[in-house]
Amino acid sequence: MIPFLDLKKVNQQYRSELIEACTRVIDSGWYIKGREVEAFESAFSEYCGVKHCVGVANGLDALTLVLRAWKEQGKLVDGDEVIVSANTYIASILAITENNLIPVLVEPDPQTFNVSVDEIAKSLTQKTRVIMPVHLYGRMVDMPSIMALANKHDLLVIEDAAQAHGASINGVKAGAWGHAAGFSFYPGKNLGALGDAGAVTTNDSELAKLVATLGNYGSLKKYVNDYVGVNSRLDEIQAAILSVKLKYLDSEIETRRTVASLYCSSIENELLVLPYEDSESVLGDKSHVWHLFVVKSEKRDDLARYMRDGGVSTLIHYPIPPHKQQAFSTMNAICYPVTEAIHSQVLSLPTGPVSEADELDRVIDLCNSFK
Ligand SMILES: *Cc1c(COP(=O)(O)O)cnc(C)c1O
């Protein structure tokens, strides 16, 4: 069976360096808030082209803590509205509801799967304070337009960059466009730890300090607590691992792009809709890092079964849209037709950075012979 993403094989490539990094942490006798976290924060902020990176426990916390910090600063109050894509992963929305803010779900563009500035503009109300663009599947949202809209209406922008490490528009990376961004380093993400990890990036020094404080029990000085904080810290050991893997991120992204362009040029079947071509996109060919290669088909479930019978694992991102989840029962009756169509039609093909040529050929052959 060809795996969807062979994480063991991904990490095996860096095995000796990862072991060296872990050994260094074990032997240091220092496991929380030390040199490794500092080193990774500085390497990742440099990579993203921002002034600050604050390591946190996971991607959900990264998003949650930024919104929380804006509340502490008085920029947001309970009941303010946050605009977010209706077809995102549920974490984006949980970060909003966790802060007693109101998620306003916006339909995506059916071609790019991302929110468009026109749809966002239609959803603005007196209570809108924040836009949360989600760079879904690794494809960046049109950030120049979003920032222009946000500036015009004096709104805050937090990028959900959990799937888009290293993507850029006009040379400016995901995580450097908004007033802040949340990243996840969940093992399956393009930059993945060997456990849970996340980070906030921002150019706002006050915000960075506040996020770090809130994630450390609301304490800047040991045993002095200024805020009702939480415990959300990046471990030394995950930071050391991430510093190793960050060095290879760009080359892994290049491999993903090669796989994606091979799929785009070789898969031809009228039952499958391939991802919208970014080479012609105004956002440029660096705006997509292919975290996921997502095709659409009205016969999606048959296609998934056909792929599995042919020995290829696929996944669905995501089978149930957030507004249809039991967790958000108050939204269950609302209808988002574009989002619902996407959820019933999408299928993600293997695009991992360690796929072999014969594996890719098998994926392509199956896609082409599906009837
Ligand atoms: C993975 C993901 C998150 C959450 O990250 P965790 O580290 O799993 O908490 C948030 N948003 C999106 C779009 C994601 O893909």
From TrEMBL:
Organism: Alcanivorax sediminis
PANTHER family (UniProt xref): 3-OXO-GLUCOSE-6-PHOSPHATE:GLUTAMATE AMINOTRANSFERASE, TRANSAMINASE
Pfam family, one: DegT_DnrJ_EryC1
Domain of life: Bacteria
GO molecular function ontology, one term from the record: pyridoxal phosphate binding
This protein's UniProt keywords: Aminotransferase, Pyridoxal phosphate, Transferase
Keyword check for Transferase: yes
GO BP term, example: polysaccharide biosynthetic process
Homology family: Belongs to the DegT/DnrJ/EryC1 family.
Residue list for modification N6-(pyridoxal phosphate)lysine: K189
Active site: K189 (proton acceptor)
The protein, known as: Aminotransferase class V-fold PLP-dependent enzyme
